[in-house]
Every structure is written in structure tokens, then in C-alpha cells.
């Protein structure tokens, strides 16, 4: 997709603060408010900007345990297992990874007891799962809130 340096600047400003006004964006990139609004609309229309969202600090809403899982799945059941897990309210994200039908999953829960309950009652009960490996996050150094161009 074609986009220029001004579009890159606009995207970087929106990644930093998705609530920045068109007026502020215009001042930062040296265009009029109307021109910036048109460029943002164009970036959305082209699918370069997929959506505007908010980043939540999970610890501040009581989700103090963050765990990552590598879940190996029977190949024929990959889609069903992925959808089943994606529908779980504790699953923050889930991706299909390279390897033998592997899903990478990020889970947020209140405490270690909830994590144990999730693993034993909600994860292991899903048909089609072959193997599960988990890691608990100790410290976050960087979190993706948008891609820097």
C-alpha cells in the first residue's frame, strides 16, 4: 500500500495517543485539520489502520497474573480448538504458530488459584489438545500498542 512520510507521522502519533485531535495532528505534521482528517480516513479505508482502541492496564482491573501458553492441537481440530479458546473470557489473545498445529495464547486472570482453575477446568477439558506448555510473566519490558514505522 502506498503511504508517504506524513502518513507515517500521523500513524506514529496515533499509536502514541489514539485520542489526539485532528487539530493537534495537523500542528504536528504541518497540514490543515481537514487534510489530516482526510488522510486518516484514507488510511482506514485502505485497511492500514484497522481500528482505534484503548490499552488497559490489566493489573489495575484485578488481572494480576499474565500467562502464556503453547498449545499443540490435533490438526483436524485446530479451528474448533482455537475458536473454543478464543471465546474464553480469560484469553486475551490467541495465534496460530508454525510447528505441528500449535497455538500461542495469552491469558489474564486474577490470581494463581484462577490460573490453576483455568488450566484444569477450562483448558484441559477442550477436546483436541495434545500438549500444553505454560509460562507466567514476571516483568513486562515492552508491550505492543501499535507498530512503529
UniProtKB/TrEMBL annotation:
Entry keywords, A to Z: DNA-binding, Transcription, Transcription regulation
Keyword RNA-binding assigned: no
Entries under SUPFAM superfamilies matching the protein: Dimeric alpha+beta barrel (SSF54909), Winged helix' DNA-binding domain (SSF46785)
GO molecular function: sequence-specific DNA binding
Gene Ontology annotations of biological process type: response to amino acid
The keyword Cell inner membrane belongs to this UniProt entry's keyword annotation: no
Domain HTH asnC-type, first and last residues per copy: 3-64
SMART domains attached to this UniProt entry: HTH_ASNC
Pfam families, A to Z: AsnC_trans_reg, HTH_24
Entry GO terms, CC: cytosol
Transmembrane segments annotated in the record for this chain: none
Protein's name according to its UniProt entry: AsnC family transcriptional regulator
Organism (species): Oceanobacillus zhaokaii
